[in-house]
User: Fold this.
Amino acid sequence: MFQSMNITASALTTQRLRMDVISSNMANVDTTRATFDDGEWQPYKRKSVVLETKGEGFSSFLNTAMNRDESVGNGVTVSSIIQDDETPGELLYDPDHPDANEDGYVELPNVDPLREMVDLMSATRSYEGNVTVFNANKSMMMSALQIGKS
Amino acid sequence: MNLFSGTISQLEQGLAYSSLNQKVIANNVANVDTPGYKSKDVNFERMLQDEIQMTSSSFQPSNPKHFEITPKQSTSGVHQRSFSVRENGNGVDMDREMANLATNQIYYDALIERLSGKFGSLNSVIQGG
Assistant:
């Protein structure tokens, strides 16, 4: 009965986690000391979430096996948080910086604030869309409770 | 005389359809950012076909075009659409989903309204006006 609310709740949780990751990226936009590898400080690397459909579980396989129709699904979940080690960070010339290399360059995190802002807007809009669905669902349930009252 | 005359069970079927549709819309909106997710919808015509095929044999139509609508609990009729609207393979069209959401909500409320009306008139009959 509350399945659609659970679906929407999973999406709200997911979008909030996505926003947490974006916050972390923005907060660490200048962090040059994130991890300590081989006696050297490494800058912060951009993180992002991987979303995945929830509900590709037992019931959906059973339905497929029984030649039944597609199941509705159970919402969305974050399958993993990945770190972008590929994109190189910007190099800043600052020989006095304690983390500067031999040539005097400091590697900054590979976080692009513009991209983070776009992702932030996207997450906000998705969250709002899900809130709209939740409210619609709630008002439908409330009207269902009015059956028989007069 | 059949006091309930099938109206209540038919409205109940309508509510079941509407609830299923609501779940499908919720799932589509939830997966708006999932790469590769394809939008799903409830195919009303297919559900209707299922209902026609489920017609019980006790029903004797006076015209071959008549059919009986039998109450049936069913989650069939959900099917996946195959196209994507974004470059990551996602097929959720937010405008469409929001329009469906509004339509479905009004439809549900209308059914509830009729169901309440039915109970109200029954009540009126029971109390003798």
Observations:
- The interface with chain B takes residues 3-5, 7-8, 10-11, 14-15, 18, 51-53, 55, 68-76, 122-123, 126, 129-130, 132-133, 136-137, 139-140, 143-144, 146-150 of chain A (CB under 8 Å).
- The helical segments of chain A are 3-27, 58-65, 113-144.
